[in-house]
């Protein structure tokens, strides 16, 4: 297996992740029923987000935290949800890639989940 080194790799990873996550029994409903994401609009944003993080190309514009607060108001984003998101992400990453950027993808996702969980929990307090 190879490392994540290109936009095409990022797109492969994100596509495979979303193939799994939207069908997941624990968190899939956030994507399909709560946020009702349109994959054709959502995926390019995720490609840009992860390309910015993993490849250092500043192509992402937006505030990922801001878009999750309305979801959290409808259904609380709980620690178990973030843990499941991380589990699926890590599985998908390791099934398809290996190397420095691969490990960075997992480490950064862990940090993102921790920060997001903290902010979502405080927003409900």
TrEMBL record:
Keywords: Heme, Iron, Metal-binding, Transport
Coiled coil start-end: none
Pfam families the record matches: Bac_globin
InterPro entries attached to this UniProt entry: Globin-like_sf, Globin/Proto, Hemoglobin_trunc
Name recorded for this polypeptide: Group III truncated hemoglobin
Source organism per UniProt: Epilithonimonas ginsengisoli
């Amino acid at each position: 297996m190879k490392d994540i080194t290109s936009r095409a790799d990022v797109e492969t990873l994100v596509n495979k992740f979303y193939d799994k996550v939207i069908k997941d029994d624990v968190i899939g409903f956030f994507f399909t029923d709560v946020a009702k994401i349109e994959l054709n609009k959502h995926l390019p944003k995720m490609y840009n987000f992860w390309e910015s993080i993993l490849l250092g190309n500043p192509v992402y514009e937006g505030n990922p935290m801001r878009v999750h607060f309305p979801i959290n108001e409808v259904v609380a984003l709980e620690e178990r949800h973030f843990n499941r998101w991380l589990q699926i992400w890590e599985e998908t990453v390791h099934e398809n890639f290996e190397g420095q950027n691969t490990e960075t993808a997992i480490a950064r996702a862990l940090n993102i989940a921790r920060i997001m969980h903290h902010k979502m929990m405080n927003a409900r307090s």
